[in-house]
Structures are given as structure tokens and as C-alpha cells.
Amino acid sequence: MRELDRRTIEEFGTPGEVLMERAARGLVEALLNLIQARQIKHPSILLIAGKGNNGGDAEVAHRILLEKGVSAALWNVEEIDWPAASAHDFNILVDGLLGTGSSGAPRGKFAEAIAFINRARALKVAIDIPSGLNADTGEAQGKTVCADLTVTMGLPKTGLIRSASVEYTGSVEVVDIGIPPEYIESTKGCDEAELIAKSDVQLPRRKRDSHKGTYGHVLLIGGAPGMTGAIAMAARAALRSGAGLVSVLTPEEVYPIVAQAAGPEVMVHPFPDLGKLTTDFSKVWKKTTAVLAGPGMGTSPEFVRQLVNTSPVPLVLDADALCVAPEKIAAAKCPVILTPHPGEFKRLFGAPVTDRWKQAREAAEITGKIVVLKGVRTVVAAPGEKLAINSTGNPGMAKGGSGDVLAGLLVGLLGQGLDPFLAAKTAVWLHGKAGDLAAAEKTESAMVATDLIEAFRALQSR
Questions:
Q1: Lowest CB count within 10 Å: 134, 147, 165, 244, which one?
Q2: What are the C-alpha distances in Å from 185 to residues 67, 201, 205?
Q3: What is the pTM of this model?
Q4: Over the stretch 340-379, which tens digit does the pLDDT of each residue have?
């Protein structure tokens, strides 16, 4: 980043003051979005400035906030008696103390200011990187700010996407400060992975001259006694993805429950026995554009093997459908996306998850398919591609049904014709962002999986 800044200033001719102004305006936009998302009626922002560019960004952002009529104060780290300071008058604190150029554990006033930020009850927003965090490794170097949101400038720093940084960064948003794309392309970054950014998210454009068939017909297979909610939530999420038609195959004994829970827009079809269900969907394959199997389905390896062998359209295997050997999945002729959580990953690949990046990459290479390893910082791995790391989402999503919603959203995007790797990245980012909106409205403790589906509406209007 230092090299990119230097080239942009010296070679491209953009003054450093202009880069700082762009960074500050991006920070202010992120703060205003946070205020809107959290429905803060009377925002009061405290920006704490250190030295260097981080402090400069805080100072310029303070000016812009005042120009916009937002209540904001600016404190200089060296001028405050931190042990005696109080943050009771502020509901958002902005960490502009230390940037990527700092090294070693924060000391003196900086360490005191970090402790002040962390004990405050306000929301915390870090500029570029939480103060105290190593920008390369993502490890805390001593006292480190625990942010709810990190607004990083230009490009995400490697440390922001590494697992070690999870407790410190919160969600990560990237501000475009105008670094020429050709400079970025010629600069060595992280060889292993990249952050999924908002700019990577692509929803199919809806044409004026279109009809329901234009946006695909997705088929979902699942549901069993005691687990009918899973397939119903997946179907509702597929509808909210923009899919034109959504059909569900579910056991005869739970058909009435699934039909009612999925809603009137979903076409629900009963079958007598999953073990005897043929995968010759010749009557619907011509119309079906993507298939999801697994939510609440119950394990049936033989059925899944047949499905993998015969499906001519993209296939999502989730939950109970993750029950066949990786070499069987590798033999599939169609694109396949696997969506395991760590427990399902262990069941499928035979080893506990200890290194998310390495194991997701190996799983993708073994199967030749896309692997979405769910959890904190969901990893999307595809053969021949950099790992895609997601930073949206929050602990409130650690509840039953969240994975079913993701699977439904994913199959809906696939069914509309998105490239499978792009569909996976888009789905996990939108899923996490919906979770952030739901948490802002309902709180992390009180939110439930169906709140994510409702939040898709707000996401697509932004």
C-alpha cells in the first residue's frame, strides 16, 4: 500500500491531500451508512486522531461530518488524560490512532487510548486497520482495538482477512481512493486469498422485456419429519434471490407442512420415499436451471450419488446431501458447489478443520468443484482461483436455519445464470450483509434465520 500510494502521488500526479480527502469521504459515507443501518436517531461521533495518515483521515472526516451537520468531536491522542476520559456522550468512536506503518505493541498514550476505546459502550469503527493489529499477519501486537467495523483504504490489508484478526476487525469495508487499476495489477499482493468486496457482488440485471422463465427455475429437494423448516426457508430465500420459479420436492408425509411454510409462490411436489425417488427429472430438466439438495433431507447416499451422476445443471449439495465420497463428487459432469460447515467438512473429507484456508483449497482441488467452507470468515475455494474470504456477517447468525438460507440464495443465483464461482461469492457476501442488517434491527441475540430473508429486500434496494 505504501508503494501504491507513492506511485499514485509521484507518477500518476494525484496529490496526497486529494487521496486523504477521498479516504475521509469514504469513511464518512461508511459512518452514515452505519448510522442508518443501526437506526441511531441522535448520532454523536468521537474521532480519536494519532499521527500519520490515520490521524489525518480522522481530522478531515471530522470536518466533513460537521459540514453535513453531524455531531462530531475530534480528540488528539497526546492531549487527553485517558484514564480520566469518558465516552458517555458518544455512540460511535472512530479509531484513527495507528495505521499500517506502526510496528510492535502500542505504548504510552496510544495504549491508554486503545483501552479507553475498548471499554466504551459505543460502536467502534477503525480507520484502515484496528490500532495494534499487525497489518500482515492479523495478529494483535499488544493492546488492540476491537472494532465493529473496519473501513480500509484502497485495498484490504492481508491481516484483515486472516483468521487471527476475526475478533478485532468486525466487518470490513473497502474505500476506493482512486489508485490506478494498472498499478494495482502490477503490485504483488497476497498470493493465497482476496477479500470479497461489494464490487465483487453481482445480481442479474432484470430486463424490461422479460418473464418468469428469464430468471430460471430452481428445484430444491429436502424436508423430513421434524426438519420441514429447513427446506421451506431455503425455498423462500431462493425466491428472494430473484429466481423466476421455485419448485420443491419433499416427502409425502410432510408435504402439507412444507407447502404452507414455503408460501404460495413456491410449487411444492410430494414424493413417497426418498430412497425410491428417481433422479430422472426428464420432465423438468428442460426447464430446471439449478438444483439444491440437502436441507432437512435426511441422509440418502444412493440418491445423492445418482443425482451427482445425472444432473445436467448446476448442483448445490448442502447439509444432509454432503454424504458421498469426494471422488464421486469429482466425477460429476455438472458444476457442483459444496456448502459444509466444519462438522460436515470433517464428515466429508475425514479430517477436522484446523486450517480453513489450506483445507478449503485442498478440498476444491480433490473434488474439482467449488467449496464454501462456512463459519467466521467463510472461505470460497475453486480450482485454479484465489481463495475468496468473506468478512460480512456476525455472531447473531450462529443459529439454526442460517445455512439453509444461504443454500437457497445460492441456488437461486445459480439458476439465474451466474457463473458458479461468482454466484458463491455473491451469495456469501449478501448472506452476511443481510445478517448485519438483521442484527442492527433485531440485535444479535434476538435475530433469527428468517430475518435474513426479510433483509434481502433492504439489501437489493441499496
A1: 244
A2: 36, 20, 28
A3: 0.89
A4: 999 999 999 999 999 999 999 999 999 999 999 999 899 9
Show the domains of the chain with their CATH numbers. Answer: 2-190 (3.40.50.10260), 212-460 (3.40.1190.20)
Amino acid at 154: G
Identify the three-state secondary structure at position 319. Answer: helix
| Crossing angle for the helix pair 228-240 and 255-262, to the nearest 10 degrees | 30
Look up residue 213 and give its three cell numbers.
422463465
Copy the grid coordinates of residue 204.
Answer: 442479474
* 229: its cell numbers: 423448516
> Which of 348, 372, 235 has the alpha carbon at shortest distance from 293?
235
311/221 Cα distance (integer angstroms): 13
- Contacts for 310 with CB less than 8 Å, ≥ 6 apart: 279, 280
Cell of 61: 472526516
Among 327, 362, 322, smallest CA distance to 341 is for 322
CA dihedral (350, 351, 353, 355) positive or negative: negative
- Cell 505504501 belongs to residue: 2
129-157 pLDDT, tens digit each: 999 999 999 999 999 999 999 999 999 89
Tell me the mean pLDDT in the region 425-441.
94
Contacts of 204 (CB under 8 A, 6+ apart): 215, 242, 413, 416, 417, 418
Going across the sheet that includes 123-127, the strands are 71-76, 44-49, 92-96, 123-127, 149-153, 171-175
Percent of the chain's residues with pLDDT above 70 = 98
Give φ, ψ of 26 to 5 degrees.
-65, -40
Q: Any alpha helices (H) in 263-315, and if so which ranges?
A: 282-285, 301-310
Strands (E), 132-215: 149-153, 171-175, 193-195
The percent helix, strand, coil of the chain (3-state, each to 5) is 45, 15, 40
- 268 sits in which H/E element: strand 267-271
